[in-house]
């Protein structure tokens, strides 16, 4: 008799409807461990970062770097005047990697040199240092802007053997911002823009 009553009571309990979960608090939802964890994961991660990791130091360091990089970009991109470009694409040589990057910042395909460019030597090609803010761009190009161009008597000089096709052999190109020496170059002028194409890196 007792067993029969107990069995009837169990059946009755199991037949009762489960309580509906409270929409305001996922802690009381039955069989919802996954939902609960998902709802608290962000908070837990943030707590861990702030307590077990130098979160504020990292944030300050990252902010200092990005602020300095963005300031360098604004300084370089705001320069107005005569544009000088050195083009190494004809000799299939990346500009990046030819010079040290102390004090430089990478931004996409740009490498920013807010304190100037250290110059480089590549076989028989030599480029002097540049003392104004400048950048390399799209792997093959160097770019600098002379903001005092309007006060210059001439934008550049070239020495070397000039050929009918407009190229120069054993060229020395001197601009107000830098000097470039190369076995063979072509100079292309377009408006207020001068491109020096390096056509050979060895004699």
Describe this structure in words.
With 203 residues, this protein is α+β, with helices and mostly antiparallel strands. Helices cover 28% and strands 31% of the residues. The protein folds into two domains: 47 residues, no CATH class; 120 residues, no CATH class. The protein contains three helices and eleven strands. The longest helix has 23 residues. It is elongated and about 70 Å long. The termini are far apart.
Provide a count of the helices. 3
Major sheet description: 11 strands, mixed
Terminal Cα span = 111 Å
Please estimate the helix content: 25-40%
**Count of discrete structural domains:** 2
Structural class: alpha+beta
Beta strands, count: 11
Overall mean pLDDT score? 83
The low-confidence parts are 21-36
- The radius of gyration computed from the alpha-carbon positions, rounded to a whole number of angstroms, is 34 Å
Beta-strand residue fraction: 25-35%
Global outline: elongated
Instruction: Give me the strand/helix succession.
Output: HHHEEEEEEEEEEE
What's a quick, concise take on this entry?
The chain is of the alpha+beta class.
Topology:
Layout: H1 2-15, H2 33-52, H3 55-77, E1 82-87, E2 105-107, E3 110-113, E4 120-122, E5 125-127, E6 134-137, E7 141-146, E8 157-162, E9 167-174, E10 179-190, E11 193-200
Parallel strand pairs: 1-11
Antiparallel strand pairs: 1-7, 2-3, 3-6, 4-5, 5-10, 6-7, 8-9, 9-10, 10-11
């Amino acid at each position: 008799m007792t067993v029969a009553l107990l069995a009837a009571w169990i059946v009755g309990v199991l037949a009762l409807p489960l309580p509906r979960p409270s929409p305001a608090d996922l802690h009381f939802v039955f069989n919802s461990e996954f939902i609960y964890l998902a709802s608290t994961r962000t908070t837990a991660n943030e707590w861990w970062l702030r307590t077990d990791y130098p979160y504020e130091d990292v944030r300050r360091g990252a902010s200092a770097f990005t602020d300095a990089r963005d300031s360098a970009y604004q300084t370089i991109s705001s320069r107005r005047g005569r544009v000088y470009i050195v083009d190494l694409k004809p000799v299939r040589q990346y500009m990046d990697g030819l010079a040290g990057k102390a004090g430089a910042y990478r931004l996409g395909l740009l490498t920013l040199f807010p304190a100037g460019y250290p110059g480089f030597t590549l076989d028989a090609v030599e480029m002097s240092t540049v003392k104004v803010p400048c950048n390399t761009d799209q792997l093959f190009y160097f770019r600098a802007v002379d903001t005092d161009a309007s006060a210059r008597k001439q934008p550049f000089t070239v020495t070397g053997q000039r050929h009918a096709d407009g190229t120069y052999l054993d060229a020395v190109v001197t601009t107000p911002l830098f000097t470039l020496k190369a076995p063979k170059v072509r100079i292309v002028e377009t408006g207020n823009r001068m491109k020096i194409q390096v056509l050979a890196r060895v004699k």
